[in-house]
Design a protein that fits this description.
The complex is a heterodimer of chains A (284) and B (329). With 284 residues, chain A is an all-alpha fold. Chain A has 2 domains: 42 residues; 232 residues, MetI-like fold (Orthogonal Bundle), CATH 1.10.3720. Chain B has 329 residues and is mainly α. In chain B, strands 1-2 form a two-stranded antiparallel sheet. In chain B, helix 1 crosses helix 11 and helix 4 crosses helix 6.
Chain lengths: 284, 329
């Protein structure tokens, strides 16, 4: 008897075909959303894309015209300061975990806590910074927003730094130590260089993560209609500006919000692809 | 700082100074890294303490009743009446429905990528799914509000409502009227957002299955589905559950996307097509304009959310760790 004529075999084959077809349709289902979202963004965002977006400030309601210059600069500033604070702390902490405390109990506790912080809701971080900085300082400020972003950066960078340093072969460290290098030099001049691509990937991923974050900025940096680079006051930023503009009745504001959304998404996706490209070359 | 390559021997005082400064630099660097590592622990402690301090007034005023009261009236006189039942319900139910949708689809994609996909397509498709995770949450919110919401309200919801009319329990769960803003819309958006997390982890743990096991199963004539069901999934069960919990942790705390599409209504409705609210969307939409007891009540909600996600994420990590030990990493 050939397998094809046995009803039991046929049923198994049918079951296999059905489940595999379901897997393929699940993949199509997932990819459809990506295409739909990106298409909507391009469709709505490109219409408003012009030079004024980058040179003019956000307009008052119902005035027409204007751009997003203050929000773009504010976002770049908050992101840069957030990474400038969070990046070094994250790299140093990851260095301790991989280089000095590799076999410590403390390191495994820190790793566990760090993994939880990595997935903690970003709105909670906003609440934390509100209680720890905004209230004592007596008002919303760009600095508070940057610190909230830094708190999000730290766990991302700690994780990648530790992982990447653990991939550096020990023989390299031993060779450097045998030449008489002090341990901190071994780490900075040898281990960091060997893991450089990975470290850059971590920072890029962190930038990608925070550049679209809205929730932690809602009640830390707030936003600002005007040009302001003073960190002790509220600073305009793209995510909160989009949030405020998209729900308004003013069609000009709405258009600006879509264009801003396109800019953010383009920046974030470019960063994450770049991070993957660099990381893919460096390791694995 | 550079290291002296040549020593003249005669100026041993200079050499001693050099060595001292090297030693000082070495110690300083060690402590800098150690303090930074402890800062991570302090961060968690700081978050918990700051939330407890902020939530204390509301905790004292409402106590356990906060968990069972549905009414949310921050401007009631003489004192605000605040109950967290509605946002807690919304958070749990929206995440639960999101997982119902995202888990089968996410696992399906992972199975496709590891077992069926031609190798040339594996990287591009994997990357495309991961890009979904990169899109900022507010973009999902805008898209859900302007595109998905109207689509669901005009087509999908009326169809389901008509089908379920007259069937006992279902007609209450899927009751009309269809709405642009609803618990179900929020769940669907959440499902799309956590899909990449489930797929990425499931793909990783599926790849830890020793090829020998799969080959043995294929060797005795199993179909692909039978190999997945009887070898791959049982072998990686703990890791898959860990990945699902991780995604659940994300879904519980997701803010902007949900705030846009859920309708922010503090009334608990039997129908999942009715507006609702979640903890994070209540905080996002009310916190900036709140003060006094109202603000404290919102921070108390935040504390509850943090405790909830803390336990879910801890469970997820412990499960994933167990799998890593098993895989001998």
């Amino acid at each position: 008897m050939t397998p094809n004529t046995n009803p039991y075999y046929a049923a198994r084959k049918r079951k296999n075909a059905i489940s595999m077809a379901l897997c393929v349709s699940a993949t199509l289902f997932g990819l459809t959303w990506l295409v739909l979202i990106l298409a909507t963004l391009l469709w709505n965002g490109i219409a408003g894309l012009n030079l004024a977006i980058f040179t003019e400030n956000t307009p008052p309601p119902n005035a027409g015209g204007g751009g997003l210059a203050n929000a773009i600069v504010g976002s770049l500033m908050l992101t840069a300061i957030g990474v400038a604070i969070g990046g070094p702390i994250g790299i140093l902490a990851g260095t301790y975990m991989a280089e000095y405390g590799r076999y410590n109990r403390v390191t495994s506790v820190i790793r566990f806590i760090n993994d939880i912080l990595l997935s903690a809701p970003s709105i909670i971080i906003g609440l934390f910074v509100y209680g720890a900085i905004v209230r004592p300082m007596g008002g919303f400020s760009g600095l508070a927003g940057a610190i909230a972003l830094a708190v999000i950066v730290i766990p991302v960078v700690v994780r990648t730094t530790e992982d990447m340093l653990l991939l550096v072969p020990n023989q390299i460290r031993e060779a450097a130590a045998a030449l008489g290098y002090p341990r901190s030099h071994v780490i900075r001049l040898v281990a960091y260089r060997a893991a450089r691509a990975g470290l850059i990937t971590g920072v890029l991923l962190a930038v990608a993560r925070i550049s679209g974050e809205t929730a932690p900025l809602l009640f830390t940096a707030l936003s600002n209609q005007f040009w302001n680079v003073d960190l002790t006051k509220t600073v305009a930023n793209l995510p909160v500006t989009i949030n405020n503009f998209i729900n308004s009745a003013d069609s000009n504001w709405k258009q600006l919000a879509w264009t801003g959304a396109l800019l953010i998404t383009a920046a974030v996706l470019t960063l994450s692809i770049a991070a993957r490209a660099i990381g893919g070359k460096g390791s694995k | 700082m550079s290291i002296p390559m040549t020593q003249t021997g005669s100026d041993s005082a200079a050499r001693a100074r050099q060595l001292r400064s090297l030693k000082a630099g070495d110690t300083a660097f060690y402590w800098a890294t150690r303090l930074a590592a402890y800062a991570v622990l302090l961060l968690l402690g700081g978050i918990i303490i700051s939330l407890i301090i902020g939530a204390w007034p509301a905790l004292k005023a409402y106590g356990v009743d906060f968990l069972t009261t549905q009414r949310w009236a921050p401007s009631a006189q003489p004192a605000p009446i605040l109950g967290g039942l509605s946002p807690i319900y919304g958070t749990l139910v929206s995440s639960f429905i999101a997982m119902l949708i995202a888990v089968p689809v996410g696992l399906g994609i992972a199975i496709f990528l590891t077992e069926l996909c031609p190798p040339a397509l594996r990287r591009p498709i994997g990357m495309a799914v991961e890009l979904l995770a990169g899109i900022p949450s507010i973009i999902y919110g805008m898209w859900g509000f302007f595109v998905l919401g109207p689509f669901l309200a005009n087509t999908f919801q009326p169809w389901v409502i008509a089908r379920c009319a007259g069937i006992p329990i279902l007609q209450d769960i899927f009751a009309g009227p269809a709405s642009n803003l609803s618990l179900f819309n929020a769940s669907l958006i959440l499902a799309i957002m956590v899909l990449p997390f489930i797929t990425a982890i499931a793909k990783d743990v599926f790849e830890t299955v020793p090829p020998v096991l799969k080959e043995a199963a294929y060797g005795i004539g199993c179909t692909t589905w039978e190999v997945v069901k009887n070898v791959v999934i049982p072998y990686t069960r703990v890791g898959v559950i860990g990945g699902v919990m991780l995604a659940l942790g994300r879904a519980l705390g997701e803010t902007m996307a949900v705030t846009f599409v859920i309708g922010n209504s503090f009334k608990i409705s039997e129908s999942i097509f009715a507006p609702a609210t979640t903890i994070s969307s209540a905080i996002a939409s009310e916190f900036a304009e709140s003060d006094g007891l109202h603000q404290s009540g919102l921070i108390l909600l935040g504390l509850l959310l943090f405790v909830l996600t803390f336990f879910v994420l801890s469970a997820a990590r412990l499960m994933l760790m167990r799998l890593e030990i098993k895989a001998g990493k």
